Amino acid sequence: MLDDLDRRLLRQLQAEPTLTAAELGQRAGVSALKATRRLGRLLERGILKGQHAVIDWRALGYVVAVSLRITLDKTHARAFDEFLDAARGIAEVTEIQTFLGRVDVRLCVIARDMAHYQQIYRNQILALPHMADIEALMTVATLRDDESLPL
Amino acid sequence: MIDLDDIDRAILRALVRDATQTAVAISGRIGLSQPATWRRIKRLRDAGILVGQRVSLDAAKLGFGVTVFLGIKLATKGRVSLDDFERAVTAIPEVQLVEHVLGLYDYRLRVVARDLADFERVLRRRVMTLPGVGDVEANVLLSEERRPGPL
Fold first, then answer.
1. A86-109: per-residue pLDDT in tens?
2. What ipTM score was computed for the predicted complex, to two decimals?
3. What are the distances in angstroms from CA B111 to CA A144, A147, B33, B87, B120?
4. Which of residues 25-64 of A touch B (CB under 8 A)?
5. Looking at CA atoms only, how far is residue A126 from chain B in angstroms?
6. Which residue from B17, B103, B137 is facing A102, i.e. has the nearest CB?
7. Which A residues 82-111 touch B at CB under 8 Å?
8. Which of A22, A92, A94, B50 has the most crowded Cβ, counting Cβ within 10 A?
9. Which of A29-38, A94-103, B43-52, B71-80 has the lowest mean pLDDT?
10. What domains lie within chain B, and their CATH numbers?
11. Nearest residue, CB atoms, B53 vs list A52, A57, A151
């Protein structure tokens, strides 16, 4: 199980992922060596899964972001698998989530502008298999996005 | 805005996969000299394309077994209520993402909880009591994948 030190280290790491082991240790009140060992253990146990660079798509000209909420036709046994396989083939899809609820799948689609979005929507999204219903939420502003866990 | 070439795209893909890699490791993989790789990474940072990194933790192993996406519609609208709502919602520790959206809902939230009972507590005590909150739709996350996007 996790002890207080593990939690302190993970909290600091979540807040500032670029900190070195020495800086993390200092903030958590332990030596660099101890911090390195603990983080190594957390990696081994699969609790710390890695670190990923964050790309600002707006800086690359992708200023449109849309959440597509999709209901699938579940009378087909392979509806989920076939839909997900096809969705993975669309380059502008940056996230795929499946749910238990009113909506089955969410796709996050990015585009350069509305004309580009319309082109992706018509030619690629509407060509995805087994869709029963589709709803769009367009992102106006992201007020918070850190995916930190309240440890 | 800068135009990316294939080398930039390869660097971005490598860093999205693992942001802890050094420029040396990346240069070896893409067949570019180390100083040139380092210059490219710096250029991507300076252009605001690489905007930091995200720590990936196994939420379930840390005791957060449930992630729920919420769609929220405000009951009352107007500038004041938007500000009040946004200030209150971004202060809830279990809320990882807040997006102002256009469409069927006004806001999209991502909420983590220990289990369904804990989620119910967050929903009742924190979300349903937000100023101006109206309709709330909840979808429980079953699976999630992040795609590299148009790189």
1. 999 999 999 999 999 999 999 999
2. 0.91
3. 12, 9, 43, 16, 11
4. 45-57, 59-62
5. 19
6. B137
7. 88, 91-103, 106, 110
8. A92
9. B71-80
10. 6-46 (1.10.10), 66-140 (3.30.70.920)
11. A52
